[in-house]
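One-letter codes give the sequence; the fold follows as tokens. An example follows:
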Amino acid sequence: MTTAQKTDTAYRMNLAGFEKLIRQCEALGKNYKPSGTKLKLTALNKLKEQVLQGIKENREQTIEYLKASGERSTLDRETQRRAKLILKAIPPPPRPTQAEMEALRKMPREEWAKRERPKPPPFLEEIQRLRSFSRVKHAAVQSTSAGNTTTTEENASRLTHREWYKIQADALADLAGKLKTLEAYTPEPDATPEALQTLSHDMQQKNEAVNAAVEVKKQADGKLHALFYDTENGLMAIAGQVKAHILETTEPGSDIHRLVSVIMFHNPTSAT
């Protein structure tokens, strides 16, 4: 179970326990007479509504983040498709003639080892940079463990998604500019320099949308955490005071005393 899942589980458990406490306060009726204003029944119901609203807002922000992240991932997959189109549109190096192949076969081994190697397609390294985040991350981890990192993969094992997508968008824009200088480049409509520039711009926008969604989600997380765990006014603090008050003012053998005593609360960030 992830930390987020543990936190959500604790929220549900603590809210359920708080609602049980409120029902026991209602069952006590006029016998529930706390001295503090924050412990009165109206205040408890108000706090419950605030928590429910906070959970709703947090869920909405989670959905917005997942939506923005999914749209960004879609563009990542689209970039992989465009990379294949780019390679297809770049003319391959000229193949050796039959006579050249025959000369290579007859070439002494020492000369063959020193021969001029065929040149790769232009901008091959730039195209390879358009790999997906997961593939680069995996390659970087493998290279790092082998002690053989490349310039492209250097420190990639520590890149976040946001950092990688920015690098990818910049690389795509840079490649689009270079492809304009390649006269023999005959791409399909989706792989023209103009189309690649548009895709780069879209990626930057999607990445910024994810960044904004992350910040809003952090604020929602902080607000909800405070509603539960603020040491003075949070649900946990108030619930503890209500529980203590009921246990102090009811007979140990009574039903309400027994029911309240078994209501438990949990803070996933605390060992207690």
The longest helix spans residues 41-89. The CA atoms of residues 183 and 197 lie 18 Å apart. The chain has a mean pLDDT of 84. The chain has ten helices and no strands.
